[in-house]
Each structure stands twice: as C-alpha cells, then as structure tokens.
Amino acid sequence: MDLQAYQTEGFHDELFDASLGPRPGAELLVSRLAASCDGELAERQRAADKMLLTMGITFNVYGHEAGTEKIWPFDIVPRVIDAGEWSVIERGLKQRIHALNLFIDDVYNQRRIVADGVVPDWLVDSGKCFRGPCAGLKPPRGVWCHITGTDLVRGGDGVMYVLEDNLRTPSGVSYVLENREVMKRTFPQLFAGQRISPVENYPEKLLAMLEYIAPPQARDPTVVVLTPGIYNSAYFEHSFLARQMGVELVQGSDLVVQGDVVFMRTTHGLERVDVIYRRIDDDFLDPLAFRDDSLVGVPGLMRAYRAGNVALVNAPGTGIADDKAVYAYVPQIIRYYLGEDAIIPNVPTYVCGEPAQCDHVLSKLHEFVVKPANESGGYGIVLGPRATKEQLEDCRARIKANPRNYIAQPMLSLSRVPTVVGDSLEGRHVDLRPFILYGEEIFVLPGGLTRVALVKGSLVVNSSQGGGSKDTWVVHERRR
Amino acid sequence: MLSRVADSVYWMNRQIERAENVARAVETTLDLALDGTISPGRLWNALVCTFGDEADFWARFGLADQANVISFLAFDQTNPNSIASCLQAARENARTVRDMISTPMWEEINKAHLYVRSAAAANAEIDHPREFLDEMKRASQLITGVADATMSHGEAWHFARMGRLIERADKTSRVVDVEHYFQPAAVRIAPPASGTAAAAAVLEVGTDAVQWSAVLESASALEMYRKAYGAVTRRNVAEFLIFDRFFPRAMHFCLIKAEESLLAITGGSKGAYSNPAEQRLGRLRSQLDYGAIDEILGDTSGLHGFIDSFQAGLNRASDAIYDTFFALRPVGSAAEAAG
Predict the structure, then answer these.
(1) How many other C-beta atoms lie within 10 A of the C-beta of residue A180?
(2) How confident is the model over A131-159, as pLDDT tens digits?
(3) Are A165 and A321 in contact (CB under 8 A)?
(4) Residue A454, phi then psi, degrees to nearest 5
(5) What band does B195 get if pLDDT is binned at 50, 70 and 90?
(6) Taking the complete model, does pTM exceed 0.90, yes or no?
(7) CB contact under 8 A, A56 and B99
(8) ipTM of the complex
(9) What is the DSSP letter of A415?
(10) What value does the CA radius of gyration of chain A take, rounded to a whole number of Å?
(11) How far does CA B298 lie from the centroid of its chain?
(12) Which is more confidently placed, A398 or A268?
C-alpha cells in the first residue's frame, strides 16, 4: 500500500519521524506495511475482529444495562519501541516502583518522610485510599505494591512522561497477551525476521511472584485469584490470569475465615488458601474491617491477613501511592529514598490542596486538564481547552468544595500511531501501560498495553469511552 | 474443586443438552406434521406439554401452531427453557468457570451462543427452522466432543458429564412419554376403562409405527434400534429407550454413566452409598437394572405412570446432588454470621 499519503500532522508519531522515515526499530514493520497489497489491511483487521469475537475477549461497560459485554477493540498496526529506549524506560519504572514501595511502607510505619517534611502529613492522612487499619503492618517480604500498571505518555516534545501510577488493581495485562496472540495468528508475516521481546511468560512470572510472597509457613502455597464476579468490567482478565496460572478463580462467597485462617469451599470440604491475588478494592475486601455493606468481600479476611496467615496482593493500603496528589510528589519521593533523580519525569502537576497552586489552576482553568485524585478508568476528567463554559464552572465549584481531591496538568499533545481506518492508515493518539511485578526482584513486562483513542482527534484512550488497543513491540536490532 | 464452580459446570452442560433436546423434539414434530396422521394442532400442543411449560406458553400465546411453538421453544428469551435462553445461560456459566474449561471448549460454546443470538435477531428461522435446528444439535455434539478431547477427565469433567446425562435421561423419558400427550386432553385426565371402545381408539394412536419411528428419530436411535429389534413396535421402542445399556440416549445408559461420574467424584463404589446423591441415583439406576418393559406395560399405571415416577426420582437425585456438592454449607463461625 502507498504510505506516501500518511500524515503526521505535526504530532510526534511512534512509527515515523517528521520526514516520514521509519523510526529506529520500525524499519522492517514499515517496509512490510508498504509492501502489503490493496485491501489487505482491511482484510486482516476483519479477521482479527472476528477472532476476538469468537474468542470472547470482552470487557463490561458500566452505566448501561447491568454488565453490558463489549468486544475488546483492537487495531492491527503494532506500536514499536526501540530496545535502546525501552531499557531506559525499564530502569525508570524499576526505580519508581522501588521508591514507591519504600514510601508506602514508611507512611504506614515510621512516617520518616512526613517527619522530614518532604511530603506533607495532611496529604497522606486525607488520602481517600489511606487505610488507617493498615498502620503498623509489615506485609510478607516487605512488598506492598506487587503489581503495578504505570501509565506513560509521550508528549509533543518526544519525551516519555509518567502520567499516573496504578497500584491498586491495575488491569489490562491479559489484553497484552491476547493482542500478541491475535496479531501472530492474523498477521504472521509482520513478525518474520524481527527480534521482538516475548510477553508470553508473564503468567509464570506472576505465579512465581505470588508464591514468593506467601506466608513463610506455607510450604506449597495455594494461590487464588479473587474476583467480584462476572459483571465486573475486568472479569475476562481475572479468569484469564487464573487460567494461565492454573489456580482457582474464587468469589468472596467461596472463601471463609475460621480461626484467622482463610479457606475455600470445595466439593471435598474446606481447603486452606495462602495467597490471594485480589481484584477487589480495599473498601470491599472485608465488611468487618472496611465497608460493612460489601457483598463481594470476605468477613474476617483482614484479621487473617494481620495474623500473617494469608498474603494479599496488592497489600491493602497500597492505594495511597495511587493518589494523584501523591503522584505530584513522586520525584521528591524517589530522591528522598534513593538519592537519585527520577529517570522518567512526571507531567508537571498542580496540587489543588496547596492553596497557591490551587489559585494558579483556578485562574487558568481553561488551559488545564483537571483530574480527581482517586478515580480510575478516566472518569471525572475535565479537559479545560475542550470544555464548555458550564463544564468549567461546574469543575471550578467542585475544586473549591474539595481542593484536596483535585490535581491539574497542562494539556498534553499525546503521540500518535498509524491506525487502520477503512483500508488506509491515520494517526491516532496513544498511551502506554507497562506492567511491573515486585517479588524476589522487580520485573517489567517488555512493552505493555498500548491504548489508542480510536475516535479521530480524541485523547481518551479508556476502553469504557471509545478506546482500543494495539500490540506493543519492543524491537531489538537484528542479529547479523 | 470449588462448590460454586462445580455447580456452574454441571448446569452449563445440562443447559446445552437441554437446548439440543428441544431442537430434536421440534424436528420430530415437524416430521410428524408433514406425515399428517395426527393433526398439527395436537402435535404442537403435545410438544409444549412434553417440555412441561404449558402454563407459560398459554399465558402468552392463543394458539399452538408451528410459528408460535417454535418461537416459544427456540427463541423466546422469557422462556427459561428455550434454546436461546439455555445457550445464554450456558455461556454465562461457561464464563464463570472460564478458568476450568479448555479454550477450544469455551470457543465452541461462545460460537453456539453467538449463532443462536443472531438467528433469534433475524427471526427468519421460524418458517425455515431445519438448518437452525441441525446447527443446534451439531453445536451441542461438538461441544461434547471438544470437551472429551481437550478437558482433563477429572472432577470438573465428571460434573459436566453427570449434568449432561441427567438432563438427557430426563428428556428421553419425556420423548418416550409423548404418546400420552398425543391423546386429547379429556383422555389424559380421565383414562377410559380398558376394553371399552374409547380405550381401543386411544391405543390405536399409541401404537402407530410412524409415530414411534419419529420418537426413535428424535433420539437419533432408528438405526441402532433396527439392529437390535427390526420392526418398530411400541413395546420394543419403549424397551430400547428405557432399558438399553449401550445406546447413549437410552435412560438406562444415561444413569449408568452418570453414576460412574458421581462415583469418580466421590471415590465411592457401586452397591453402597455414603451420601444422598449416591443413594438416590444408585436406587434409580438399579430400578432400571432389574425392571422389565412387560411389567410396566401390564401395570395399571402403565407407561405414563412409570415415566412420571422415574422423573420424580430423577428430580430427587438432582436435588441430592445439589445438597451434597453445591450448597454453600453454613460453617457457623461468628464471621460467617456477620456476613
């Protein structure tokens, strides 16, 4: 096909440089795309869509009918990251997770960072995800944030920034694996002759981590994945991971706590559980410790956890480092614990809980992207430059009512990747969510989930709001 | 395995088997309607009665004709036993046990569900239902085959097989009983005394070879039957579908294999029991071990009476399976009470 018609339109493109030459790592992919015949791209896209439908790779959208199931939108043109750049990103992510884990452990124990005035105490204590009951806890092996999905974006300046840290129950890794499989089956010739980092070993890494952090007395630990059930938006992923690891997928009602030990109810009676990879928020984990109206949790689970009889992944309370106001302090947190500068910079961020910064944000509200500090899935975000007057005033009122709960960032010009539109390619904005496991060591899955805003000009990549995804390739130089 | 998961696997397969049997019964009725011996009205009415959803049907439809009955039994989302509802429920169950079943098995269930859904939306199948019904039978058999070939024959597989066979035993028993529903309603409620002219007329309907051939066809049993018996008679067809030990849709075969799966799950052995499920299923199976068709036909309650009590026994066995394996037994801790 003719790639001459493709336009970067002044955006940073992940496959092409400004003069439409292929970027490092993308040379072979671009030449293969150029060599594809007319109609082939549309044909391959259709084949991929059909495969996703048959495989039942879906997610649920809230707010419509209860648990409406949608097919996961996928674009067949991969996003390429050169191995040289990836090694920097990998180091940056390890550094960040290392520091954040130290931070979480500190705020629930000695609180040195607060005493030393690096992070203000009001910020920590007012955090919606700060869990008082977790104070004094020491999780097995000292790890709190076992699984993280850090969102990265590339700005118009070509620099990769951290947009947010997801340390509660980040989702999307199953789609990384499924995307690769769909890609291999529907467009195998793109892979020929390339050296692409594999992603298929993630389930083994995950299981090894879960077994590593088991309570020390568990010799041959029993691991389970705890899901809220089939109507949860990420149910597909919960069952996928359980299946890939060969462990039980349980719901709250399958578990019972007796004598501070967790058991699951099986056809042969009760069986002890040692490690729970829970995909349920802290709030709903245990009605006796947190929200007492939770129907998906397990009464007594926190007592069993505190008694050291079960490991929870991620550890309850980890969400404090997921707070977007805390995010603003991460560069200082890294410097405080590790004595290093952050390898991957933050997006410049204003914390509305700080009066001076709040005034600045309110005076230029139409220039900022305003985000609530503790939402996920892209809910509650106001894009200043694209908002109506009413939306801006509504946003202003909400900030004034609860400044602690908001942050503001400049509007970024997200990078783009060529995406199939009919039988041709157009640029669409993307972000990147790499997945990091913290067990015996820190492991970063090469690449991660590239989410793409399929709507022309849109910056919203969330699957619940018209986003899709792409296979992500970390491409190494070919052996000669 | 988890009780909840065992429950879902068991029901997933029952629902798929149920959908297949509805498809078979509709096909047979279409054949008989072409044949013309029994009036179409009575045939379609009998079909609704056979599947036990009479009240539901008459609450919504004024007439039991081909279009109404097929739309009710195949596509009606509000009828929990329609093919569409069964497939929807089976897929929902498959999703909840996605981690227990193989990917090829899941994909076949998903495909079958997508096929039924698009057929229901198109609604064109009501007038030309053959292809749809064929596809439904094929899908169910494909799912069974793929499960046998790709799933470990461990606990989950045994729960699945037990579900399928218990459902099949129930549906075959209904097909055997279909002559009862071909009778006019008045005869069904108050059977005429034997030896009267009315009784002779009833019997005539019941001994029709075409009708019993259709019964065999609906169980894909005609060839296997012929090898065993030759000519089609009421007595022999009933004997074959109730007592045969080797034909996979015969009630006796279904119970023998269902019990094998049950014992594989519990580790028990035939001839004794250690829980209500083993007791009830074993008792029902042994009734077929030592039963005889001539005794049944010669008894005052007749074939219909026998089938009735068989179905009641099967329901009791099914309830016992639920109580033994699936019911989330209260554990009685303080935490449990608070939950």
Answers:
(1) 20
(2) 988 999 999 999 999 999 999 999 999 99
(3) yes
(4) -75, -20
(5) low
(6) no
(7) no
(8) 0.72
(9) -
(10) 23
(11) 26
(12) A398
pLDDT exceeds 70 at position B11: yes
Specify the range with the lowest mean pLDDT, choosing from A230-244, A352-366, B176-190.
B176-190
- Closest-CA residue to A411 (of A425, A429, A426, A427): A429
Domain ranges of chain A: 27-341+412-476, 350-410
A141 DSSP 8-state letter: G
The two tokens of residue A281 are: 């928020």
Return the pLDDT at A67. 47
Between CA A249 and CA A264 the distance in angstroms is 11
Half-sphere exposure of A247 (CA within 13 A, CB side): 27
Report how far residue A196's alpha carbon sits from residue A83's, in angstroms, rounded to the nearest whole number.
9
Q: What is the pLDDT confidence band of residue B196, given thresholds at 50, 70 and 90?
A: low
Interval B145-190: pLDDT, tens: 999 999 999 999 999 999 999 999 999 999 998 888 777 665 555 5
Residue with tokens 């002044």: A10
pLDDT of residue A88: 98
CA B93 to chain centre: 19
For A453, the 3-state DSSP assignment is strand
- The answer, for B298 touching chain A at a CB cutoff of 8 Å, is no
Q: Which residues of B241-255 are buried (b: 16+ CB within 10 A; e: fewer)?
A: bbbbeebebbbbbbb
Q: How far is B212 from chain A (nearest CA, A)?
A: 40
User: What fold does the segment set A350-410 form as a domain?
Assistant: Dna Ligase; domain 1 (3.30.1490)
Counting every residue, how long is chain B?
339
Residues in chain B closer than 8 A to A287 (CB atoms): 338-339
Query: In A227-279, which ranges are continuous DSSP H helix?
Result: 235-245
Mutation site for B-interface testing, chosen from A57, A222, A253, A256 by largest number of B Cβ within 10 Å: A256
Domain boundaries, chain B: 1-151, 162-329
